[in-house]
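queue> holo job accepted (magnesium ion)
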Amino acid sequence: MDTAEISALAQAIIHQHGATFGAQLHHDANSVELTPQPLPPALRSEPAYLAALEACSALGFIAVDAETLAQAWQRQTERTNRFDATHWPDDPRDFGLSNSDPALAFAHCPRELGLYGVLPTAEWVGRMARAGVPTVQLRFKSEDQAAVAREIKAAVEAVKGTGARLFINDHWRAALDAGAYGIHVGQEDLDTIAAKDLETIRTSGTRLGVSTHGYAEMVRAHAVQPSYIALGAVFPTTLKKMATAPQGLARLAAYVRLMKQYPLVAIGGISEDLFPAVRATGVGSVAVVRALVNARDPEAAARQLLQRMQAAA
Ligand SMILES: Cc1ncc(COP(=O)(O)OP(=O)(O)O)c(N)n1
Ligand SMILES: Cc1ncsc1CCOP(=O)(O)O
Ligand SMILES: [Mg+2]
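queue> job finished
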């Protein structure tokens, strides 16, 4: 196939899916600006792969995600024996997400983690757990290890008797020592935790949540078979400087279709009014910071968000 024929296949993909992913270019308060990305160097020569690489880059996927999608489109083409521009890859087998050994998976947690409060102190953790938030996280940023250990212990105490599941962000050793329900780590954290330490967390029965920001990171997260996968940032957030653009609802829905074997958590810029649209993607949990912490009445906000979670279920 020559370059013109490959470009015609790429155009067919863009024609089919431009409205879905391109719809994110609309301009309203929650719009997500996804600009076409430069075409990365091709690693293979098959037409389906090359066409998908071109199309996905044009649709705004960054190089590693366009590459992951292009490889999946090629596998889909081989598996089904035909190139189908209409079918956006969503079969885990095409992403190499099958055939994991379940004996090596992290401890399970419920598919529906529900409203998930990501909170700055043990006091906030206790307050939101008592308000009925079913999943909470202590996201306590400090270099002072003694202060970290104290805060984590206090958070573990604070959720006792509330039924809330407590995840600890980043500080996995102290979280293990304190007997927290789970640990949340980012991609950078995964880079720095040694394989033997991950194994220590896994065999302790402590749950593990992993942040992802696109297709390549989801594939990478799957390699450790975590208890849940977080997907974000869905919308712009002022709370954390993100290395990648907000993903938007269309991508979130595509991620949920692909990763439905995992409990999934959507995070980033999710305000109360956006809950129905986020829940409509099928994601089982919605994580928020500012929607709780910046609310004039955080307990009332928690009640409101819990209702939104249920209404959209
Ligand atoms: C539920 C949830 N999702 C994502 C994050 C972000 O984690 P990470 O990428 O490690 O960034 P920091 O929170 O450490 O700044 C999270 N904390 N919780
Ligand atoms: C910690 C984190 N990780 C990805 S987005 C985010 C912050 C979410 O905060 P908010 O819900 O206030 O946008
Ligand atoms: Mg982190």
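queue> The chain has a mean pLDDT of 94.
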